């Protein structure tokens, strides 16, 4: 379950505060210290934690909540609002092109969940908008990657364009796009290669694909379980590719929650979807307010 530790610690901090009735400035300081430690333990980015704690404290003092009724309740409300803000305030929908096809390029490290997420998203669009997507297999480095996308395609009944592993990925994408246009597909997903770490050659290849198709959406797929590494990876990809959004996968296995709470604030890029399981239906729109409620328990 996501955020286990954080939820427990925040609830404890809030319970301690509620017990007080009247809250002094030093009580507030203690609470903020507990919140700070809880966030750091959840692997939230240090600067994000610092800014968060400062804002909550300033808001609490500025609104004179300590002198009003139910100070603890007011502080919980401020914490909830600031958590929501840190994660981006509102859900951000997928970009959509004025004329078909809308092109969605996926990027991310190997194993982050790109191929799975392509399938999940294609299925979502099919189910919700009656979309007719095409998925392009542009990872030529692992033969298994193409097979995996084909299996996903069969499972969700969405066609896959592939040219094996001997063709340059940019050429595969060029021909895949031609097929999508001929077949009037309304969405094209480009499943790209990943590496264990960010490397120059891969980034150049991704940049070349980007220059060719000018995607409407470049979704960075990030494994939530990798915590602050996920945030560093997001920054690295974003610097090279200027991504338009993030999909945070494996939130179902992420007990800490640091990536979810840091990525938006560090990169400025919205988390658009979260993966919460291995099934094709385990993908949800990311709602910062609902996530904040969940974190506070
Ligand atoms: P890629 O190398 O980036 O294309 O990653 P894959 O799509 O092959 O995913 C790697 C592994 O992560 C697979 O075993 C997926 O089933 C698993 N996976 C992907 N997304 C999620 C998720 O949201 N939750 C869980 N639990 N597993 C996921």
UniProtKB/TrEMBL annotation:
Keywords: Coiled coil, Cytoplasm, GTP-binding, Hydrolase, Nucleotide-binding, Ribonucleoprotein, RNA-binding, Signal recognition particle. GTP binds at residues 108-115, 191-195, 249-252. It comes from the Bacteria. It is found in: Cytoplasm. It catalyses: GTP + H2O = GDP + phosphate + H(+). Residues 2-87 form the Signal recognition particle SRP54 helical bundle domain. Residues 100-248 form the AAA+ ATPase domain. Belongs to the GTP-binding SRP family. SRP54 subfamily. This is Signal recognition particle protein. It comes from Lactiplantibacillus brownii. The lineage of its organism: Bacteria, Bacillati, Bacillota, Bacilli, Lactobacillales. The chain holds residues 1 to 297 of 484 of the full protein.
């Amino acid at each position: 379950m996501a955020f286990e530790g954080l939820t427990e610690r925040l609830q404890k901090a809030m319970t301690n505060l509620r017990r007080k009735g009247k809250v002094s400035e030093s009580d507030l300081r203690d609470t903020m210290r507990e919140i700070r430690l809880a966030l750091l333990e959840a692997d939230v980015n240090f600067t994000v934690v610092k800014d968060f704690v400062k804002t909550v404290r300033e808001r609490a003092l500025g609104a004179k909540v300590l002198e009003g009724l139910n100070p603890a309740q007011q502080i919980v409300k401020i914490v909830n609002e600031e958590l929501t803000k840190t994660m981006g305030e509102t859900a951000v929908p997928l970009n959509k092109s004025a004329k078909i096809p809308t092109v969605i390029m996926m990027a991310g490290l190997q194993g982050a969940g790109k191929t799975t997420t392509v399938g999940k998203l294609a299925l979502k669009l099919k189910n919700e908008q009656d979309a007719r997507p095409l998925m392009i297999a542009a990872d030529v480095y692992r033969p298994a990657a193409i097979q995996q996308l084909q299996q996903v395609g069969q499972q969700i009944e969405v066609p896959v364009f592939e040219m094996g592993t001997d063709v340059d990925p940019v050429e595969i994408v060029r021909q895949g796009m031609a097929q999508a246009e001929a077949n009037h597909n309304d969405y094209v997903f480009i499943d790209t290669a990943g590496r264990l770490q960010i490397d120059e050659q891969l980034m150049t290849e991704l940049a070349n694909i980007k220059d060719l198709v000018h995607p409407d959406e470049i979704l960075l797929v990030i494994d939530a379980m990798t915590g602050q590494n996920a945030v560093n990876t997001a920054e690295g990809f974003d610097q090279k590719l200027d991504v338009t959004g993030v999909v945070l996968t494996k939130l179902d296995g992420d007990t800490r929650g640091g990536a979810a709470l840091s990525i938006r604030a560090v990169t400025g890029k919205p988390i658009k979807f979260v993966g919460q399981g291995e099934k094709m239906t385990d993908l949800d729109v990311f709602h910062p307010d609902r996530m904040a409620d969940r974190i506070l328990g």
